[in-house]
Amino acid sequence: MLTDLKIQRLKIESKTKRYADRDGLSLEVRASGKKVFLFRFQWNQKPQTITVGHYPSLSELLSILVYEQNIIKRPSSPIVQQPALRLQT
């Protein structure tokens, strides 16, 4: 599981790298230095990805809460709910 300390210590490399966390949630560290939380899932047998938020403005705990509250517990497509997931940063 990714913790705040582990995320801070991740090194920025010359290309984008993803670090899986749990239940489709992952952290992408981009070459530009940005750290982005992503949620990956299957919808209608097609892989989908939603950007949940950027680190550090969206902490690991908050990203898990957003993920659980807005995606898992609702029967409709997460793509339809994507605008509701975006937080003002």
Name of the CATH superfamily: Integrase, DNA-binding domain
Mean pLDDT: 78
Termini Cα gap: 24 Å
What's the architecture in CATH terms? 2-Layer Sandwich
- Total helices: the number is 3
The radius of gyration over CA amounts to 13 Å
Helix content: 25-40%
Q: Could you name the ranges where pLDDT drops below 50 across 5 or more consecutive residues?
A: none
Shape: globular
Protein name: Phage-related integrase
Keywords: DNA integration
Organism: Legionella feeleii
Domain Integrase DNA-binding: 2-59
3D architecture notes:
The structure is a single chain. The chain has helices at residues 4-9, 60-72, 78-85; strands spanning 17-22, 25-29, 35-43, 46-55. The protein is of the alpha+beta class. The protein has a single domain, classed as Double Stranded RNA Binding Domain (2-Layer Sandwich), CATH 3.30.160.390. Strand 2 (25-29) and strand 3 (35-43) form a beta hairpin. The two termini are 24 Å apart.
Secondary-structure topology with pairs:
Blueprint: H1 4-9, E1 17-22, E2 25-29, E3 35-43, E4 46-55, H2 60-72, H3 78-85
Antiparallel strand pairs: 1-2, 2-3, 3-4
Helix pairs in contact: 2-3
At a glance:
Helix content is 30%, strand content 34%.
